[in-house]
Design goal:
The chain has 20 helices and 14 strands. Helices cover about 45% and strands about 5% of the residues. α2 packs antiparallel against α3 and α16 runs antiparallel to α17. By secondary structure, the protein is mainly alpha-helical. The chain is globular, with a radius of gyration of 24 Å.
Length: about 550
């Protein structure tokens, strides 16, 4: 509460020099001597006496399977993109860590969780593994042929499931009462698709099931709509108290109109449930009289049925069915096919809206759809969570919706929402995973118009990321949708560099599109423009791909 450090996470990441009892004894002695009112300098002196700085719990690690030039880089036709891809590949060496064996021996002196294998971390303040970040980090590593590193990271997650019964939000003890979007099973599928290592599935299928069952047992609710009851998933992190890594912020938020202990604890639950979504924080979780207005005191994530989570649950069930089919375990295969089918029905009946033309989150407390643009509305395209025999219908509706909501005219990618609240998962921020999900979802439809739209979005994203890197030598956690090459902002911590999922996504896009796309195609004026207005994108982006028909996306 004394704000010794600008970032609350700094202190809780520091290693205790002594055991718990000795540290507490020294703290109580300091408090007694200062009559329980220590000066800032006295507090800082105590911390320096008893704690080592952040980073004392791991060693930097250069992955032993890193190679200087992965095969796919040779196929990138633009020399600028080729050089950039090499530099992004080199960043893996800067983002590797290995948790010290001392952590395993004296775990009580550390907040980091010991894992046996090296990890590629996001970067910046994020000095440990993070659950959903790792999906895109692993995808990038796989394209860079770093198969052993990916397998080791998957094995680390298996130790989390063995220890905690699920995969926590991240690799710190203060994350172990909540999770993040459940992408472990898709991570395993990505690894197997790249390597053919089906033995990994055979050896670990029980842990894939256990992770899936955590969500089924702890994160599902009954939703009644039109007289029919459906089972769907939500985020809901039940634990008491403020987040240790954001302690002061949460305590101060709780002082804004909350009086009883029950009210305050409910707020802390909603804060942590919002963090479990990965979108911390956003107007997506604000519920004020059934609307998306409010602030952090209005968080109600646990009462919302999110499109993205349920699309992922469907995907997980389908992948498990595929794995059990390969293992010749047909009863299990049929079980998960049945779960997938029930989720498809529920997602369509509860979350799809013909009149709007998209999937929408559902507020099951106020019994109302959340009819707002969120970039998460498109997840079912990515996970194929829609009826394939009606694909043309769903795709045409989504393409029309994308034009109506007018988010495609932003030069730096699609914004997360249309609400400018100052929270980091709101306008104007453009987050790498959300670009990837829409691009990939549009591509998977195999529709000509959808694929053209995907290519346009790829051009915007690679162009913006390249310009930012070219001027700063850095990859950012998030960007500004309204500015080509502009980084994002807002939220409770500063802009972070690194950055794991940004690198992974750009590398995958360069692999998929680098054979035909050049920097010249993007017509980025002087490579140093700060702002390119959306209305001019038809003339400066993909002139070789855009037709008169497609220009209406941006005008």
């Amino acid at each position: 509460m004394s704000s010794i450090y600008g970032d609350s996470k700094t202190f809780v990441d520091m290693k205790m020099k002594y055991n718990i009892s000795e540290t507490l004894r020294m703290f109580n002695e300091m408090m007694f001597k200062t009559k329980h009112s220590p000066l800032r300098s006295q507090l800082l002196h105590f911390i320096n006496q008893t704690f080592d700085p952040p980073g004392s719990d791991f060693d930097k690690h250069i992955p032993n399977d890193w190679i200087e030039e992965p095969v796919f880089i040779k196929d990138i036709i633009d020399p600028n993109f080729k050089t950039w891809a090499k530099k992004l590949n080199a960043l893996w060496k800067l983002l590797g860590i290995k948790v010290k064996s001392e952590v395993r021996i004296n775990a009580n002196q550390y907040s980091i969780i010991y894992v046996p294998n090296p990890v590629i971390v996001p970067g910046g303040r994020f000095r440990e593994f993070y659950y959903w970040d790792s999906y895109w980090i692993m995808r990038g590593l796989l394209y860079c042929q770093m198969y052993r590193t990916v397998k080791g990271m998957l094995e680390n997650f298996i130790t989390m499931i063995q220890t905690y019964g699920f995969i926590p939000n991240g690799g710190r003890i203060y994350y172990t009462m909540r999770s993040q979007p459940p992408l472990f099973i898709p991570m395993v599928k990505s690894y197997v698709d790249f390597t053919g290592d089906k033995m990994f599935v055979m050896d670990n299928i029980e842990f894939l099931e256990k992770e899936f069952h955590f969500w089924m047992l702890n994160r599902t609710v009954d939703v009644v709509k039109n007289g029919k009851t459906y089972v769907l998933a939500r985020y809901c992190a039940l634990s008491s108290g403020p987040r240790p890594e954001s302690y002061k912020q949460d305590v101060l938020t709780a002082t804004q109109g909350f009086k009883t202990k029950e009210e305050i604890e409910n707020l802390y639950t909603e804060i942590k449930s919002s963090v479990e979504t990965g979108w911390d924080f956003s107007s997506r979780w604000f519920v004020n009289n059934g609307t998306n207005k409010g602030n952090l005191t209005s968080l109600k994530a646990s009462s919302i049925i999110p499109v993205d989570l349920n699309a992922i649950i469907y995907w997980n069930a389908n992948i498990l069915a595929e794995f059990f089919s390969e293992l010749k375990m047909l009863r299990k295969r049929d079980k998960y096919l049945k779960i997938a089918e029930s989720w498809l029905v529920a997602v369509t009946d509860v979350l799809w809206h013909d009149d709007v033309g998209t999937w929408l989150d559902y507020d099951f407390i106020n019994k109302t759809r959340r009819n707002y643009y969120f970039a998460s509305n498109f997840y079912p395209l990515w996970t194929n969570c829609y009826y394939k025999n009606k694909k043309d219908y769903f795709v045409s509706k989504i393409l029309r919706y994308l034009k109506i909501i007018n988010v495609l005219n932003n030069p730096g990618g699609i914004p997360t929402t249309n609400e400018n609240t100052g929270e980091q998962w709101d306008f104007p921020n453009a987050w790498p995973p959300l670009q990837y999900i829409l691009i990939t979802g549009l591509e998977l439809t195999e529709d000509i118009e959808a694929r053209l739209m995907a290519k346009i979005l790829v051009g915007k994203w690679l162009g913006s990321n390249y310009l930012a890197y070219n001027s700063t030598d850095a990859m950012f956690e998030k960007y500004d949708a309204t500015v080509i090459g502009g980084h994002g902002g807002g939220g409770e911590y500063g802009i972070q560099l690194g950055f794991g999922w940004t690198n992974g996504i750009c590398l995958e896009l360069l692999y998929k599109y680098g054979r035909t796309m050049t920097l010249k195609d993007l017509h980025l004026v002087g490579y140093n423009s700060n702002i390119v207005h959306g209305a001019s994108l038809c003339t400066i982006l993909f002139s070789n791909l855009l037709s008169v028909k497609s220009c209406h996306y941006f005008i």
